[in-house]
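Duplicate of earlier report; CDP-diacylglycerol--serine O-phosphatidyltransferase input re-posted below.
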Amino acid sequence: MRPRKLLFVLPNLFTVTSILCGFYAMTLCAGDAGPTQLYQAALAILFAMFFDGFDGRVARLTKTQSDFGMQLDSLADVVSFGAAPGLLVYKWALEPLGFLGLFLSFCFAACGALRLARFNVLAMRSPHGGGGSFFVGLPIPLAAGVLVSMIIAHHVATGGEVLDPSSRGPVAVASTALALLMVSTVRYRTFKDLRLSPRSAFVLMLVLASGVIIGTRFHPAYVLVAYSFAYLAFGLIESAFGVRKRLVARKLGRGAAAAVVLEEIDEEPEDEQKVA
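Output:
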């Protein structure tokens, strides 16, 4: 029994390591952090994403999923992908904005916590534990990944220069948009049901080819940024088409219901005559 009990510790070790990376990122951001420290903090959050992506897979592989592991994973995400990226983007770009920058950074962390709370509630209500084909709202690790990719790309492309003051506005807008997407009802694919097929292989080759083109023509650091924003755009476009389909279905349903009512009205006098 003891080896079996030890297996339950394994996925939690990945989760705790993710917390360690997020905490280390926050220590790097503390005080008068320079571009090098902020770049290292971004890398630490990137490593936290790596460990966070494997804890669930290890749990499923060893068949050690538990409610404790789910709650611990959510708490780890609040630290590593909510508080740490919020502090990072504040020190990197939003600190000169004063209270507004502080508030926007807080909104990113707060919306991430709200998104995780909603995910836990839906997971407890769902018969498959929330492991469906779509996320409701942008997952907090991916939102943090967008911010991290921007910071890494800027550091590598500029050689570690301080962010230009004219870029603080777009960063503030991007941070706010990510926060709103996390608490939105926009559906993002999990790709858990992805199966190898000629179509999926073609799409994968297209994605890889686009990354190679961006890396060779512009800068390799921009590849992660391009992939992140492509995923954001894909979810928004797919949700927009889904809303359009639902609106069309509602109109068709109302039209069919109205047609049935008209038929009943037309048939009613005939029925009365037959009765008479």
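Helices lie at 2-29, 35-62, 67-94, 99-125, 140-158, 168-183, 198-217, 222-275.

Merging into the original ticket.
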